[in-house]
Amino acid sequence: MTFPFLSVLILLPLLAGVILLLLPAGKRGLIRGIALGVSLITFAISVYLFAAYDKVAAGYQFVEQMQWLPALGISYHLGVDGFSLPLELLAGIVVLCGVMVSWKVEDRPREFFAFIMFLASSVFGVFASLDLFLLFFFFELAVFPKYLMIVMWGSPKTKEYGGMKLTLYLFFGSVVALVGVLAIYFTSGLLTFNLLELEQAGFGLAVQKLWFPFIFIGFGVLGGLFPFHSWAPDGHVAAPTAVSMLLAGVEMKVGAFAALRAGLMLLPDGMQFWAPLVLILATINVVYGAFIAMIQTDFKYVIGFSSVSHMGLVFIGFATLTPEGLTGAGLQMFSHGIMTALFFAVVGMVYDRAHTRNMAELGGLAKHMPLAMMGFVVGGLVSMGMPGFSGFVAEIPIYMGAWKTMPLVAIISVISIVVTAAYILLVVRRVFFGETPEPIRAGLSDISVMDKIVVVGLSLLMIFIGLIPSLLVPMIQGGVSHILSLVGGA
Amino acid sequence: MTLSVSQMTLAILPEILLVVLVGVLIVISLIKREKCNQLLGCITAGGFILAIVSAFLFAMPKAEPALIWGDMLRLDSATFVFRMIFLFGAALTAIFSCTEDSIRCRPEFYMMLVFSTLGMSLMASSSDIIMLFLAIETASIPLYVMAGIKIKEEKSVEAGLKYFLFGGMSSAIMVYGFSLIYGFSGTTHLYDIAQGVIAHQVPIAGVVVAIVLVLAGFAFKISAAPFHFWAPDVYEGSPTSVTGFLSTVSKAAGFAALIRILMILFEANDGAVWQALIASLAVASMLIGNLIAIPQKNIKRMLAYSSIAQAGYILVGLASHSNLGFSSAIYYLMAYMVTNLALFAIVGWVGRKTGSEDISAFAGLSKRSPGLALAMLIGLLSLGGIPPFGGFFAKLLVFGAAVESGWAWLAIVGVINSVIGLYYYLRVLKVMYVDEPVENTPLKIKEPLWLVGLILCLVLVVVMGVVLTPWFGISNWATVGF
Q1: Is residue B4 part of a domain?
Q2: Which of A333, B108, B319, B423 is paired with A54 by a 20 to 30 Å CA distance?
C-alpha cells in the first residue's frame, strides 16, 4: 500500500481548518504558523506528485479507492491524470502564495486562515476526484468559505453585493449541473458514480444532447462562461486579495475542469453537438471580456474582466476537440492561474498602500515598489501572449485548434490579443509610470519580503514555462490523448 | 404473524413507559414545587432515553411485520425507526427546554410533551384509520397546550389558540375523509382497504375524493402550502423549544403517517394522480416558503417559512413514488430534525440573552460568541444543502429520486428553490459575521446540559453528511417495512 498522498493533500487543509477554528483567537502567531506550515506541506506534496507522475505510463495515478455508500455506488475515489495534475500543482502554488500575501491580516486571522484552508481542501479535492459524487461534494464545499471571506474581509463598498452575487451564481450553476449529473447517473443504469466506469457507459445521443448543456454550462458558470460570467469581475473585485487570487487563479479552473470531467468526458457526443454554441459563447467571452477590461477605471476590475477573457480561451480549447486545442486549454489553465494570481497579488499590494484602486488617482508606483511593477509587467507579457512567456505556449495551440475546427473563431478571438496588449500597457502606464499624485504619496512603501517572494516566484515560473514548455506539455498531452480517445470511441 | 398478549405488551413497552413517565412527573412535581431547576427536564429526557433503550431491547421489529392489538397497530421497521426519531427528538426538546425559565418549572409542560410524543409514536404504527385518527389527536391536543403555555404572553396565547382552531378544522376535514373511506370500503383497516382497491371492490373515484380530504389534513400537520398559514404565527408565539418540537418531531410524525397511507395507495393503484397531487403540494410549499422567508425580520418567522420550504423538499421525495424516494424523505427528515433542533436551541438561547428574536439580534455574534456563530453556520448551511452537512446529502437524495422517476422538472424546481433558500440563510450568516453588534459583551454559555444537547445535534448534522451508509441503511430499512 502506497502512501496516500492525495488524501493527505485534501484532508490536511480540512483538518487544519477545523483545528484553527478551535484555537483561541489570541494566538495569532500560532495561527499564521499553522496556515503557512500546512500550505507549505500541500505545496511540497503537489510538487512531489508532479515530479513523481509517470508520464510514459500516463493514465490515472496515485489512485485511492474506498467504499463510501456502496448502495448507491458512491466511493471515495481519488486519482490524477496528466490533465488534472498541473492543476493540483497550480492550486498548491496559489494557496501558498495566498497565505503569504495575507500574512498581515489583522481582522480575525483565525477565521480567515481557516476558511482559506477549507477552500484549499475543496479545490484539491475537485481536481483529484474520480467519483462524480465526490467531485460534487468538494465543489460545493467551497460555497461558504468563499461567501464568508468576501463579506467579512472584502472591500467595504461592494462586498455584500459581490459576495452574494458570486455565491448565488455559482450555487445556481452547480445545482443545475447536479440535475444533469443525477440524470446521467440514473440513465447509465450502472448504479455508480465512478467516473472511470461512467466514461465507458456510452450514453445514447439523445441523452447526451439533452443533458450536456446542464452539466457543461452549469459547471461552466464557475469557469466564467458567457453569459454567466458577470459574477466574476464583481466577485473578484469585492474579495480580499488572497481570495481573489484563489478565485480567479484556481476556482475558475475548478469550474472549467468540472465541465470537462463531467461534461465533455462523460458526454463527448453532446460536446460535439453543442460545440458550435460553446465556441460562440467562448469567443464572446474572449473578445467582450477584453474590450470591457479596456474601459475600466478600477485597477482590479481590469484584471477581473481579463480573467473572463482568458477563461474564454480555455473553453474554446475544449470545444475544438482537437489535440492542440485541449493541450492549449490545459496549459492556459495553468498559465492563467499563475498569471492572474500574480496580478491580483500586485493589485492587493498597491491597494494596501495607496488605499485606492481608481487608476486616475494612481501613478508612478514603479519608483516606490519596483518589484511589484516588474511582476505586473511579466504578468502582462504573459497575458498578451508574448513569445518566451507561458501565455504564448498556451494560446498558440488554442488558436491552432480553433483554426482547424472553425477558422472564424480563431480570426475573431485573435483580436483580443491586440486589445489585451492595449489595456495591459494602459494599466502599466497609468499605475506604475508618470507622476505620483500627492494624496497617495504618503502611504507608499516597498512591498514586504513575503510579497517579494510571491512576486518573484510567480514571475519566474511563468518565464520557465514559456522557455521550457516541455515541463508541462508531455504530461498534459497524456491527459488529452485519453480525453480524445473517449471522443473518438463514442 | 400472530403474537401472544405478553409479546404484544412488550411491543408497546416504550409507550407504556411514557405513560409511567407522566405519573412520575406528577409525583415529583407534587414533592418539589419550588426550585425545580433542571430536574423536570432531566427526568423527562431520561424517561425518553429509557423508552429508546426499552424499544431496542424488547420492541425490535421481527423480520416479518406483525399486526398487534386487534390489528390496530403494526410493528415493523418503519414503526421502529420513526419511534426512535420521535423519542430522540423529544428527549432533545426536553433538554433544551430546561433553560427556558418560563416553562422549565411547569410539570404540565413536560406531561404534554410526553403525551404528544406518545401520540406520535402511535401515529407511526397505526394500521387502522380509527386508531390513526385517535393517535393524531393524542399528538395534537397537547401541542395546542404547549404552544400557548406562556399564558401571560399575548403572543403565546394567540399561538395556542390559532394552532388549536386551525388544527381542529383540519382534523375535521381529515376525519370526514376517513369516514368517506370507510363508507366506500366498509372497513377501517388500511391494508384491507388497499386490498379492496386492488380487487376493484372499492370505487377508486370515491377513494380519490376521500384521500384529497385526508391529504389536506396531513398537509396541515407537515405545514405544506397551501395549508401553512398557521405556521409562522404559531412558531413565532410559542416558546422556542416548543417551536423546535413543532417544526421537527411533529412534522416527522405527520410524514410517518402520510408515507404509510401513500405507500399503501401507490401500491394499490396507479400512482399518477397521487404523484401529481403531491408534486403540486411540493412545488407550492417550496416556492411559498422560500419566497416569503426572504423579507422576514424575525428569525423564528424566517425559520417557519424555511420549514415550510423544507416540507416541500421532503414532498419531492414522496412524489417520486419509489423506494429511493421514500428513503430519501426519511433521510431528509432525520437530517432536518437534528439541524432544526440545533437552530431553534440557539435561537432560543440568543433570544433570552439579547431579549430579541429579530435577525438583527444576531449581529456580531461571531465576535460575542464565535462558537455559537459557528454552530449557527453549520445549521443554516445544512438547511441550505451545503456539504459536508446532512442537509446536502438529503437534498441530493430527494432530487435524485425525482430524476430517477422521470420527474426531472420537479428536481429543477427544487434546485432553483435551494438557490433562493441559500440566499436568506447566507444573509443571516452575514449578520452574524459582518454586522456590528449592539453590545460588545461576550456571551458565555453557562448551561452544560444545553450545550451537550446542542453539540450532539451538530455532531449528528456533520456525521449524516459524511458517514452516509448507516443512515441510508436505516432509511431503506424503514421504507421496506411500511
Answers
A1: no
A2: A333
Instruction: Give the Cα separation of B156 and A341 in Å (integer).
Output: 56
Judge whether B54 lies within some domain: no
- Per-domain boundaries in chain A: 5-489
Mean pLDDT of A195-206: 86
The pLDDT score that the predictor gives to residue A1 is 54
In a domain, B88, yes or no: no
| A150: pLDDT strictly greater than 50 | yes
**B135 within domain boundaries:** no
Q: From CA B393, how far away is CA B409, in angstroms rounded?
A: 20
Q: Are B148 and B157 in contact (CB under 8 A)?
A: yes
Of A128, A118, A121, A14, nearest to A77 by C-alpha is A128
Smallest CA-to-CA distance from B420 within B376, B459, B454, B384 is with: B384
Question: Is-contact B431 B362, C-beta < 8 A?
Answer: yes
Decide if pLDDT at B152 tops 50. yes
pLDDT tens digits for B386-416? 988 999 999 999 999 999 988 889 999 999 9
* H or E element, residue B100: none
CB nearest to B411's CB, from A151, A179, A185: A179
Q: pLDDT grade, residue A490 (50/70/90)?
A: very low
Element (H, E) at A67: strand A61-69
Nearest C-alpha of chain B: how many angstroms from A377? 36
What is the number of domains present in chain B?
1
CA-wise closest residue to A339 among A391, A410, A276, A403 = A391
Average pLDDT over residues A233-243: 88
Q: Which domain holds residue B423?
A: 283-482
The better pLDDT of the pair A368, A316 is held by A316
Which tens digit of pLDDT belongs to each residue from B191-218?
888 888 878 777 778 888 888 899 999 9
Residue B51, CA distances (Å) to B76, B88, B89, B374, B460 in order:
17, 10, 13, 33, 20
Q: How much is the mean pLDDT over chain B?
A: 90
Please name the member of B399, B416, B468 whose beta carbon is closest to the beta carbon of A182: B399
| Whole-complex ipTM | 0.91
Q: Is B408 on the interface with A (CB under 8 A)?
A: yes
Q: Report the SS3 class of residue B68.
A: strand
Q: Which residues of A touch B (CB under 8 A)?
A: 21, 25, 67-72, 74, 108, 111, 133, 136-138, 140-141, 143-144, 147-148, 151-152, 159-160, 163-164, 167-168, 171-172, 175-176, 178-179, 182-183, 185-186
